[in-house]
Write a structure and sequence with these properties.
186 residues
Length: 186
């Protein structure tokens, strides 16, 4: 039950995309998945999950016993860079396509390591952040198709986009304080 609560919490209520802003720049530019994007998505998924597992193991088995937990972002960064460079090289050699991406994957790994207590928690949190971005995509695509005439004025577009995101955050967050939620009455 704890893992299910963690999954729902980081997917909907404290979404890594909506509340932390992880991946918003990618969400606005990302288009519908095509064959060109398949290698890109596979690389992101592999780099996030492998980096999460290795970073959690190194942090919990090496950094915690020697009391150097403060440097876990640097260690996570180094692990992530090694894994993503290796996967990038494999994809470039096999398909000839570039799948460079950094900030979304690294921040998901960093959040999952920082907020987890077990390795399963870390994997669930990173998977929840990815799923939150996937769930948000149809809303962003619908917003982009409705606001096609405002692409010329970039300020107006991003003001409307941020207003749209704030409405979405309020819609998701209101469930925590709503009287229908039985947890409020306890």
């Amino acid at each position: 039950m704890h893992y299910l609560n963690t999954f729902f919490y980081y997917t909907f209520f404290a979404s890594g995309v909506l509340f932390y802003g992880i991946g918003l720049n990618q969400a606005t530019e990302f288009t519908v998945l095509t064959e060109k994007r398949f290698a890109y998505v596979i690389k992101i998924l592999l780099s996030i999950f492998l980096s999460t597992i290795l970073s959690w193991v190194v942090t919990s088995l090496i950094l915690v016993p020697i009391h150097l937990v403060e440097i876990f972002p640097i260690v996570t960064f180094l692990i992530y860079i090694c894994i993503t460079a290796f996967i990038e090289a494999l994809i470039r050699l096999t398909t000839g396509k570039s799948t460079t991406e950094f900030i979304f994957s690294y921040l998901v790994v960093l959040l999952s390591i920082y907020e987890s207590t077990t390795i399963v928690d870390a994997i669930i949190i990173s998977g929840s952040c990815i799923l939150a971005l996937i769930i948000l995509m149809p809303f962003i695509l619908a917003f982009k198709t409705r606001i096609t005439n405002d692409f010329n004025d970039i300020e107006k577009y991003f003001c409307k986009f941020l207003f749209f995101l704030s409405i979405l955050i309020l819609t998701i967050s209101v469930w925590d304080i709503m009287w229908i939620n039985p947890e409020v009455l306890k």
